[in-house]
Amino acid sequence: MQRLKVSTSCSSCGAPFELLEGANVARCPFCGLPLLVQSQKKILRYYLEPKFNKKSISFLVDRFRKEKGFSLPKRIDEIRLLYLPFWRFTALAFYTIIKQPQFFLPPANLPEEPKTEEILSKEWDVNFTAHTSNSFGIATLGMRPDWLSLKILTDKSSLGRREEVLDMEMNSSGARERALKSLNFYLGRKKAPEDELVLRLLEERLSLIFFPLWVANFVASEGKIHHIIDGITKRTLKEGPGYFELKKSQAEDVERFNPLKIVPHRCPNCGWDLPVTPFHVVFPCGNCRRVWEIDEEGYHQIKGELAKTQEEKATGPSRPFGYYPFWVFETRLHKGKRSFIQDVFELLPSEIGLFSVKDKSRPFLFYVPAFELSNLKKVADLGLAYLRTQPDLEIETPKKENLKGVFISEHDAKKMAELLWFSLISSKTNLVLDDWKNPEFEKGKIVWCPCRKEGMFLRDAVIGYSFQKVR
Protein backbone atom coordinates (compact mmCIF):
# COMPACT_ATOMS: atom_id res chain seq x y z
CA MET A 1 0.00 0.00 0.00
CA GLN A 2 1.13 3.55 -0.60
CA ARG A 3 2.71 5.36 2.33
CA LEU A 4 2.20 9.11 2.24
CA LYS A 5 4.58 11.77 3.54
CA VAL A 6 3.72 13.45 6.84
CA SER A 7 5.19 16.79 7.95
CA THR A 8 5.96 17.11 11.66
CA SER A 9 8.57 18.65 13.97
CA CYS A 10 11.19 17.45 16.45
CA SER A 11 10.11 17.39 20.09
CA SER A 12 13.59 18.52 21.16
CA CYS A 13 14.81 21.23 18.78
CA GLY A 14 11.49 22.05 17.06
CA ALA A 15 12.93 21.61 13.57
CA PRO A 16 10.47 20.52 10.84
CA PHE A 17 11.00 17.26 8.99
CA GLU A 18 9.04 14.65 7.05
CA LEU A 19 8.36 11.00 7.82
CA LEU A 20 6.32 8.33 6.08
CA GLU A 21 2.77 7.70 7.26
CA GLY A 22 2.68 4.81 9.70
CA ALA A 23 6.34 5.15 10.71
CA ASN A 24 6.93 4.38 14.39
CA VAL A 25 10.45 5.80 14.68
CA ALA A 26 12.46 8.58 13.06
CA ARG A 27 15.64 10.55 13.58
CA CYS A 28 15.63 14.33 13.58
CA PRO A 29 17.83 15.39 10.63
CA PHE A 30 18.92 18.51 12.50
CA CYS A 31 19.77 17.51 16.10
CA GLY A 32 20.11 13.75 15.45
CA LEU A 33 17.73 12.75 18.28
CA PRO A 34 16.02 9.32 17.82
CA LEU A 35 12.27 9.85 18.08
CA LEU A 36 9.32 7.56 18.87
CA VAL A 37 6.03 8.43 17.15
CA GLN A 38 3.32 7.30 19.57
CA SER A 39 0.56 6.49 17.08
CA GLN A 40 -0.18 2.86 17.99
CA LYS A 41 -3.93 2.14 17.72
CA LYS A 42 -4.69 5.86 17.48
CA ILE A 43 -6.82 7.60 14.87
CA LEU A 44 -4.78 10.52 13.59
CA ARG A 45 -6.02 13.56 11.72
CA TYR A 46 -4.18 15.10 8.80
CA TYR A 47 -4.82 17.89 6.32
CA LEU A 48 -3.55 18.92 2.90
CA GLU A 49 -2.66 22.49 2.11
CA PRO A 50 -4.01 23.80 -1.22
CA LYS A 51 -1.41 24.00 -3.98
CA PHE A 52 -2.60 27.42 -5.21
CA ASN A 53 -4.21 30.50 -3.71
CA LYS A 54 -7.40 32.48 -4.18
CA LYS A 55 -5.94 34.63 -6.96
CA SER A 56 -5.83 31.61 -9.34
CA ILE A 57 -9.55 30.82 -9.11
CA SER A 58 -10.81 33.36 -11.67
CA PHE A 59 -8.26 32.12 -14.23
CA LEU A 60 -9.23 28.48 -13.66
CA VAL A 61 -12.94 29.26 -14.00
CA ASP A 62 -12.33 31.21 -17.23
CA ARG A 63 -10.20 28.41 -18.71
CA PHE A 64 -12.80 25.73 -17.93
CA ARG A 65 -15.67 27.71 -19.45
CA LYS A 66 -13.66 28.58 -22.57
CA GLU A 67 -12.87 24.88 -23.14
CA LYS A 68 -16.57 24.03 -22.77
CA GLY A 69 -17.71 26.88 -25.02
CA PHE A 70 -19.57 28.67 -22.21
CA SER A 71 -19.72 32.40 -21.61
CA LEU A 72 -17.16 33.94 -19.27
CA PRO A 73 -18.19 35.18 -15.81
CA LYS A 74 -19.40 38.78 -15.60
CA ARG A 75 -18.36 38.96 -11.98
CA ILE A 76 -17.31 36.61 -9.21
CA ASP A 77 -19.23 37.31 -6.02
CA GLU A 78 -17.63 34.82 -3.63
CA ILE A 79 -14.62 32.51 -3.36
CA ARG A 80 -14.43 30.12 -0.42
CA LEU A 81 -11.95 27.49 0.76
CA LEU A 82 -13.54 24.37 2.28
CA TYR A 83 -11.95 21.35 3.94
CA LEU A 84 -13.79 18.11 3.22
CA PRO A 85 -13.06 15.17 5.60
CA PHE A 86 -12.18 11.74 4.22
CA TRP A 87 -11.72 8.48 6.09
CA ARG A 88 -8.79 6.32 4.99
CA PHE A 89 -8.64 2.64 6.01
CA THR A 90 -5.57 0.46 5.34
CA ALA A 91 -4.80 -3.12 6.36
CA LEU A 92 -3.09 -6.31 5.27
CA ALA A 93 -5.88 -8.83 4.78
CA PHE A 94 -5.04 -12.53 5.20
CA TYR A 95 -7.80 -15.03 4.54
CA THR A 96 -8.58 -18.65 3.90
CA ILE A 97 -11.71 -20.28 2.54
CA ILE A 98 -13.11 -23.30 4.37
CA LYS A 99 -14.86 -25.37 1.76
CA GLN A 100 -17.89 -27.39 2.78
CA PRO A 101 -17.57 -31.14 2.06
CA GLN A 102 -19.19 -32.37 -1.13
CA PHE A 103 -21.02 -35.67 -0.66
CA PHE A 104 -20.62 -37.32 -4.05
CA LEU A 105 -18.28 -39.88 -5.58
CA PRO A 106 -16.07 -38.71 -8.48
CA PRO A 107 -15.80 -40.91 -11.59
CA ALA A 108 -13.36 -43.78 -11.12
CA ASN A 109 -11.20 -42.79 -14.10
CA LEU A 110 -10.42 -39.31 -12.75
CA PRO A 111 -7.22 -38.95 -10.71
CA GLU A 112 -7.62 -37.69 -7.18
CA GLU A 113 -6.98 -33.96 -6.98
CA PRO A 114 -4.20 -32.88 -4.65
CA LYS A 115 -5.20 -31.08 -1.53
CA THR A 116 -5.29 -27.32 -2.13
CA GLU A 117 -4.91 -25.42 1.09
CA GLU A 118 -4.05 -21.77 0.89
CA ILE A 119 -3.84 -18.67 3.00
CA LEU A 120 -4.11 -15.74 0.63
CA SER A 121 -3.37 -12.05 1.17
CA LYS A 122 -4.57 -8.69 -0.07
CA GLU A 123 -3.41 -5.15 0.65
CA TRP A 124 -6.59 -3.21 1.36
CA ASP A 125 -6.51 0.58 1.02
CA VAL A 126 -9.80 2.49 0.67
CA ASN A 127 -10.93 6.03 1.35
CA PHE A 128 -14.29 7.77 1.23
CA THR A 129 -15.86 11.01 2.36
CA ALA A 130 -16.94 11.38 5.99
CA HIS A 131 -19.33 14.25 5.11
CA THR A 132 -22.48 13.40 3.14
CA SER A 133 -24.82 16.40 3.46
CA ASN A 134 -23.26 18.25 0.50
CA SER A 135 -22.21 16.89 -2.89
CA PHE A 136 -18.89 18.16 -4.24
CA GLY A 137 -18.31 15.80 -7.16
CA ILE A 138 -15.47 13.93 -5.42
CA ALA A 139 -15.90 10.44 -3.94
CA THR A 140 -12.31 9.44 -3.10
CA LEU A 141 -8.97 11.14 -2.56
CA GLY A 142 -7.12 9.23 -5.25
CA MET A 143 -3.78 8.30 -3.70
CA ARG A 144 -1.07 10.24 -5.53
CA PRO A 145 1.98 10.19 -3.26
CA ASP A 146 4.00 12.58 -5.42
CA TRP A 147 1.82 15.49 -4.29
CA LEU A 148 0.05 14.19 -1.18
CA SER A 149 2.16 15.56 1.66
CA LEU A 150 0.10 15.39 4.83
CA LYS A 151 0.32 17.74 7.78
CA ILE A 152 -0.72 16.63 11.25
CA LEU A 153 -3.89 18.35 12.43
CA THR A 154 -3.94 18.94 16.17
CA ASP A 155 -6.97 21.25 16.25
CA LYS A 156 -9.39 22.17 13.46
CA SER A 157 -9.09 25.83 14.46
CA SER A 158 -5.44 25.71 13.35
CA LEU A 159 -6.57 25.68 9.68
CA GLY A 160 -7.44 29.39 9.91
CA ARG A 161 -10.46 31.58 10.41
CA ARG A 162 -11.30 32.11 6.74
CA GLU A 163 -11.48 28.42 5.89
CA GLU A 164 -14.52 26.31 6.70
CA VAL A 165 -13.96 22.79 8.00
CA LEU A 166 -16.92 20.56 7.23
CA ASP A 167 -18.36 18.33 9.93
CA MET A 168 -17.54 14.64 10.05
CA GLU A 169 -20.91 12.88 9.70
CA MET A 170 -19.59 9.30 9.77
CA ASN A 171 -17.77 8.23 12.93
CA SER A 172 -14.84 5.81 13.14
CA SER A 173 -17.07 2.79 13.85
CA GLY A 174 -19.14 3.50 10.76
CA ALA A 175 -16.00 4.05 8.68
CA ARG A 176 -14.48 0.74 9.73
CA GLU A 177 -17.78 -1.07 9.09
CA ARG A 178 -17.98 0.39 5.59
CA ALA A 179 -14.36 -0.53 4.80
CA LEU A 180 -14.85 -4.11 6.01
CA LYS A 181 -18.12 -4.42 4.11
CA SER A 182 -16.36 -3.51 0.86
CA LEU A 183 -13.53 -5.94 1.63
CA ASN A 184 -15.93 -8.79 2.41
CA PHE A 185 -17.83 -8.07 -0.80
CA TYR A 186 -14.56 -8.23 -2.78
CA LEU A 187 -13.44 -11.50 -1.16
CA GLY A 188 -16.94 -12.99 -1.26
CA ARG A 189 -16.69 -13.26 -5.03
CA LYS A 190 -13.78 -15.70 -4.61
CA LYS A 191 -15.81 -18.39 -2.84
CA ALA A 192 -18.94 -20.47 -3.32
CA PRO A 193 -22.05 -19.36 -1.38
CA GLU A 194 -21.87 -22.37 0.94
CA ASP A 195 -18.16 -21.92 1.80
CA GLU A 196 -16.92 -20.02 4.84
CA LEU A 197 -14.51 -17.09 4.62
CA VAL A 198 -12.07 -16.72 7.53
CA LEU A 199 -10.49 -13.27 7.49
CA ARG A 200 -7.89 -11.60 9.72
CA LEU A 201 -6.55 -8.02 9.34
CA LEU A 202 -2.99 -7.06 10.22
CA GLU A 203 -1.54 -3.54 10.48
CA GLU A 204 -5.05 -2.12 10.57
CA ARG A 205 -5.01 1.70 10.48
CA LEU A 206 -7.79 4.29 10.30
CA SER A 207 -7.06 7.98 9.75
CA LEU A 208 -8.93 11.16 8.83
CA ILE A 209 -7.70 13.45 6.05
CA PHE A 210 -9.11 16.94 5.42
CA PHE A 211 -8.97 17.77 1.70
CA PRO A 212 -9.06 21.37 0.32
CA LEU A 213 -11.74 22.47 -2.16
CA TRP A 214 -12.24 25.92 -3.68
CA VAL A 215 -15.83 27.07 -4.29
CA ALA A 216 -16.59 30.06 -6.54
CA ASN A 217 -20.03 31.67 -6.90
CA PHE A 218 -20.29 33.92 -9.98
CA VAL A 219 -22.70 35.49 -12.44
CA ALA A 220 -22.59 34.70 -16.19
CA SER A 221 -25.01 35.23 -19.06
CA GLU A 222 -26.77 31.99 -18.03
CA GLY A 223 -27.42 33.37 -14.54
CA LYS A 224 -25.95 32.50 -11.15
CA ILE A 225 -23.48 29.57 -11.21
CA HIS A 226 -21.27 27.76 -8.71
CA HIS A 227 -17.93 26.16 -9.54
CA ILE A 228 -15.98 23.63 -7.37
CA ILE A 229 -12.23 23.07 -7.90
CA ASP A 230 -9.88 20.42 -6.51
CA GLY A 231 -7.47 22.33 -4.25
CA ILE A 232 -4.52 20.14 -5.23
CA THR A 233 -4.75 19.40 -8.96
CA LYS A 234 -6.72 22.51 -10.13
CA ARG A 235 -9.24 20.13 -11.68
CA THR A 236 -12.88 21.23 -11.91
CA LEU A 237 -14.97 18.77 -9.93
CA LYS A 238 -18.40 20.23 -10.47
CA GLU A 239 -20.23 23.21 -11.98
CA GLY A 240 -23.94 23.83 -11.64
CA PRO A 241 -26.67 26.45 -11.61
CA GLY A 242 -27.26 28.69 -8.60
CA TYR A 243 -24.93 29.75 -5.84
CA PHE A 244 -23.49 27.01 -3.66
CA GLU A 245 -24.88 27.03 -0.14
CA LEU A 246 -23.74 24.59 2.52
CA LYS A 247 -26.37 22.29 3.95
CA LYS A 248 -26.01 21.94 7.70
CA SER A 249 -26.22 18.46 9.18
CA GLN A 250 -27.97 17.74 12.46
CA ALA A 251 -25.19 15.33 13.42
CA GLU A 252 -22.54 16.59 15.83
CA ASP A 253 -18.85 16.13 15.14
CA VAL A 254 -18.21 14.38 18.47
CA GLU A 255 -15.46 11.90 17.49
CA ARG A 256 -12.56 12.08 19.90
CA PHE A 257 -9.03 12.04 18.53
CA ASN A 258 -5.76 11.42 20.29
CA PRO A 259 -2.98 13.95 19.80
CA LEU A 260 0.19 12.65 18.22
CA LYS A 261 3.09 12.54 20.67
CA ILE A 262 6.72 12.46 19.54
CA VAL A 263 9.16 11.60 22.33
CA PRO A 264 12.82 10.49 22.56
CA HIS A 265 13.32 6.87 21.46
CA ARG A 266 15.41 5.41 24.30
CA CYS A 267 15.55 2.26 26.39
CA PRO A 268 13.22 2.70 29.41
CA ASN A 269 15.69 0.73 31.55
CA CYS A 270 19.16 2.17 30.80
CA GLY A 271 18.44 5.20 28.62
CA TRP A 272 20.44 3.86 25.66
CA ASP A 273 19.33 4.99 22.19
CA LEU A 274 17.19 2.29 20.58
CA PRO A 275 17.55 1.38 16.87
CA VAL A 276 16.07 3.93 14.46
CA THR A 277 14.17 1.58 12.17
CA PRO A 278 10.98 3.36 10.99
CA PHE A 279 8.41 0.55 10.74
CA HIS A 280 9.65 -1.85 13.41
CA VAL A 281 7.49 -2.54 16.48
CA VAL A 282 10.08 -4.37 18.63
CA PHE A 283 13.48 -2.96 19.62
CA PRO A 284 16.31 -4.86 21.36
CA CYS A 285 18.50 -2.59 23.47
CA GLY A 286 22.15 -2.86 22.45
CA ASN A 287 23.29 -2.02 25.97
CA CYS A 288 21.20 -3.87 28.58
CA ARG A 289 19.90 -6.59 26.16
CA ARG A 290 16.27 -6.05 27.12
CA VAL A 291 13.66 -6.31 24.34
CA TRP A 292 10.90 -3.70 24.07
CA GLU A 293 7.64 -3.65 22.12
CA ILE A 294 5.99 -0.28 21.53
CA ASP A 295 2.40 0.36 22.61
CA GLU A 296 0.01 3.28 23.07
CA GLU A 297 1.82 4.49 26.19
CA GLY A 298 5.39 3.94 25.04
CA TYR A 299 7.10 0.55 25.61
CA HIS A 300 6.57 -2.71 27.44
CA GLN A 301 9.18 -5.41 27.92
CA ILE A 302 8.80 -8.77 26.19
CA LYS A 303 10.84 -11.96 26.18
CA GLY A 304 13.40 -12.31 23.39
CA GLU A 305 15.53 -15.35 22.55
CA LEU A 306 18.06 -16.45 19.93
CA ALA A 307 17.84 -19.87 18.28
CA LYS A 308 21.04 -21.77 17.46
CA THR A 309 21.44 -24.93 15.37
CA GLN A 310 24.18 -27.56 15.10
CA GLU A 311 24.53 -26.74 11.41
CA GLU A 312 25.15 -23.10 12.26
CA LYS A 313 27.92 -23.97 14.73
CA ALA A 314 29.55 -26.31 12.21
CA THR A 315 29.69 -23.78 9.35
CA GLY A 316 31.80 -21.32 11.31
CA PRO A 317 32.36 -17.66 10.46
CA SER A 318 32.89 -18.25 6.74
CA ARG A 319 29.13 -18.52 6.18
CA PRO A 320 27.51 -15.82 8.32
CA PHE A 321 23.88 -16.09 9.32
CA GLY A 322 21.22 -13.45 9.64
CA TYR A 323 18.65 -13.86 12.42
CA TYR A 324 14.99 -13.44 11.49
CA PRO A 325 12.25 -12.94 14.11
CA PHE A 326 9.24 -15.15 14.83
CA TRP A 327 6.48 -14.64 17.36
CA VAL A 328 6.12 -17.89 19.31
CA PHE A 329 3.01 -18.79 21.32
CA GLU A 330 1.91 -21.63 23.54
CA THR A 331 -1.80 -22.26 23.23
CA ARG A 332 -4.94 -23.89 24.56
CA LEU A 333 -6.71 -25.23 21.50
CA HIS A 334 -9.67 -27.08 22.98
CA LYS A 335 -11.80 -26.39 26.08
CA GLY A 336 -9.08 -24.41 27.83
CA LYS A 337 -6.67 -27.35 28.00
CA ARG A 338 -2.98 -26.79 27.39
CA SER A 339 -2.02 -28.37 24.06
CA PHE A 340 0.96 -30.67 23.55
CA ILE A 341 2.51 -32.01 20.34
CA GLN A 342 1.20 -35.54 20.88
CA ASP A 343 -2.37 -34.25 21.35
CA VAL A 344 -2.36 -32.29 18.10
CA PHE A 345 -0.72 -35.18 16.20
CA GLU A 346 -3.54 -37.51 17.28
CA LEU A 347 -6.02 -34.92 16.03
CA LEU A 348 -4.21 -34.10 12.76
CA PRO A 349 -1.88 -37.04 11.92
CA SER A 350 -1.61 -36.06 8.26
CA GLU A 351 -0.62 -32.48 9.06
CA ILE A 352 2.01 -32.72 11.81
CA GLY A 353 5.40 -34.27 10.99
CA LEU A 354 5.79 -36.14 14.28
CA PHE A 355 8.62 -38.35 12.96
CA SER A 356 11.09 -35.46 13.35
CA VAL A 357 10.02 -34.59 16.92
CA LYS A 358 12.05 -36.26 19.68
CA ASP A 359 10.06 -35.08 22.70
CA LYS A 360 6.35 -35.42 21.93
CA SER A 361 5.36 -34.16 25.37
CA ARG A 362 6.55 -30.62 24.56
CA PRO A 363 3.92 -27.85 24.30
CA PHE A 364 2.53 -27.37 20.82
CA LEU A 365 3.88 -24.01 19.59
CA PHE A 366 2.69 -21.56 16.98
CA TYR A 367 5.33 -19.71 14.95
CA VAL A 368 4.40 -16.50 13.11
CA PRO A 369 7.08 -14.82 10.94
CA ALA A 370 7.46 -11.23 12.16
CA PHE A 371 9.85 -9.88 9.51
CA GLU A 372 8.94 -8.12 6.28
CA LEU A 373 8.64 -10.30 3.17
CA SER A 374 8.29 -9.17 -0.43
CA ASN A 375 5.68 -11.90 -0.98
CA LEU A 376 3.02 -11.61 1.72
CA LYS A 377 1.77 -15.13 1.04
CA LYS A 378 5.12 -16.49 2.25
CA VAL A 379 4.33 -15.19 5.75
CA ALA A 380 1.58 -17.80 6.03
CA ASP A 381 3.50 -20.51 4.15
CA LEU A 382 6.55 -20.20 6.43
CA GLY A 383 4.34 -20.12 9.52
CA LEU A 384 2.59 -23.32 8.43
CA ALA A 385 5.93 -25.02 7.74
CA TYR A 386 7.13 -24.28 11.28
CA LEU A 387 3.75 -25.25 12.73
CA ARG A 388 3.86 -28.68 11.09
CA THR A 389 7.52 -29.33 11.95
CA GLN A 390 7.55 -28.19 15.60
CA PRO A 391 11.36 -27.70 15.67
CA ASP A 392 13.31 -28.32 18.86
CA LEU A 393 15.32 -25.11 19.18
CA GLU A 394 18.47 -24.54 21.18
CA ILE A 395 17.86 -21.18 22.84
CA GLU A 396 20.31 -18.47 23.90
CA THR A 397 20.03 -14.89 25.13
CA PRO A 398 20.20 -12.39 22.22
CA LYS A 399 23.62 -10.79 21.80
CA LYS A 400 24.97 -8.32 19.29
CA GLU A 401 24.05 -10.60 16.43
CA ASN A 402 22.62 -9.61 13.03
CA LEU A 403 19.07 -9.34 14.35
CA LYS A 404 16.48 -8.47 11.71
CA GLY A 405 13.58 -6.16 12.49
CA VAL A 406 10.13 -7.08 13.84
CA PHE A 407 7.36 -5.63 11.67
CA ILE A 408 4.34 -7.48 13.15
CA SER A 409 2.98 -6.73 16.62
CA GLU A 410 2.08 -9.45 19.09
CA HIS A 411 -1.61 -8.56 18.70
CA ASP A 412 -1.46 -9.03 14.92
CA ALA A 413 0.66 -12.18 15.25
CA LYS A 414 -2.07 -13.84 17.34
CA LYS A 415 -4.58 -13.12 14.59
CA MET A 416 -2.26 -14.74 12.05
CA ALA A 417 -1.82 -17.75 14.37
CA GLU A 418 -5.61 -18.18 14.46
CA LEU A 419 -5.69 -18.21 10.67
CA LEU A 420 -2.90 -20.80 10.52
CA TRP A 421 -4.89 -23.02 12.86
CA PHE A 422 -8.10 -22.68 10.85
CA SER A 423 -6.19 -23.59 7.71
CA LEU A 424 -4.98 -26.83 9.34
CA ILE A 425 -8.33 -27.96 10.70
CA SER A 426 -10.46 -26.92 7.71
CA SER A 427 -9.85 -30.22 5.87
CA LYS A 428 -10.76 -32.35 8.91
CA THR A 429 -14.24 -33.39 7.81
CA ASN A 430 -15.05 -35.45 10.92
CA LEU A 431 -14.12 -32.58 13.27
CA VAL A 432 -16.78 -30.35 14.79
CA LEU A 433 -15.09 -27.11 13.77
CA ASP A 434 -17.08 -24.87 16.12
CA ASP A 435 -15.49 -26.68 19.09
CA TRP A 436 -11.98 -25.80 17.85
CA LYS A 437 -12.40 -22.27 16.51
CA ASN A 438 -11.50 -20.34 19.65
CA PRO A 439 -7.85 -21.07 20.44
CA GLU A 440 -6.38 -19.22 23.43
CA PHE A 441 -2.84 -17.96 23.01
CA GLU A 442 -0.49 -17.39 25.92
CA LYS A 443 1.83 -14.40 26.20
CA GLY A 444 4.16 -14.44 23.19
CA LYS A 445 7.90 -14.11 22.85
CA ILE A 446 10.24 -13.23 19.99
CA VAL A 447 12.67 -15.89 18.80
CA TRP A 448 15.29 -14.92 16.21
CA CYS A 449 16.03 -17.91 13.97
CA PRO A 450 19.13 -18.21 11.74
CA CYS A 451 18.90 -18.01 7.95
CA ARG A 452 21.65 -17.99 5.33
CA LYS A 453 21.81 -16.35 1.92
CA GLU A 454 21.55 -18.51 -1.20
CA GLY A 455 21.68 -16.23 -4.23
CA MET A 456 18.34 -14.43 -4.55
CA PHE A 457 16.83 -16.44 -1.71
CA LEU A 458 17.22 -17.10 2.00
CA ARG A 459 17.21 -20.58 3.49
CA ASP A 460 16.02 -21.11 7.02
CA ALA A 461 18.68 -23.02 8.97
CA VAL A 462 16.16 -24.63 11.35
CA ILE A 463 13.80 -26.52 9.01
CA GLY A 464 15.43 -25.82 5.63
CA TYR A 465 12.63 -23.66 4.21
CA SER A 466 13.64 -21.38 1.31
CA PHE A 467 12.01 -18.00 0.61
CA GLN A 468 12.66 -14.72 -1.14
CA LYS A 469 14.81 -12.11 0.52
CA VAL A 470 13.10 -9.38 2.47
CA ARG A 471 12.66 -6.12 0.65
Structure description:
With 471 residues, the chain is an alpha+beta fold. It has 2 domains: 174 residues, no CATH class; 188 residues, no CATH class. It contains 6 helices and 24 strands. Strands 14, 15, 16, 17, 18, 19, 20, 21, 22, 23 and 24 form an 11-stranded mixed β-sheet that branches. Strands 1, 2, 5, 6, 7, 8, 9, 10, 11 and 12 form a 10-stranded mixed β-sheet that branches. Strand 10 and strand 11 form a beta hairpin. Helix 5 packs across helix 6. It is elongated. About 1% of the residues have low confidence.
pLDDT average, as an integer?
Answer: 84
Gap from first CA to last CA: 14 Å
Q: Indicate how many domains the architecture comprises.
A: 2
Question: How does the major sheet shape up?
Answer: 11 strands, mixed
User: Number of helical runs?
Assistant: 6
Helix-strand pattern: EEEEEHEEEEHEEEEEEEHEEHEHEHEEEE
User: Which geometry do the CA atoms define?
Assistant: elongated
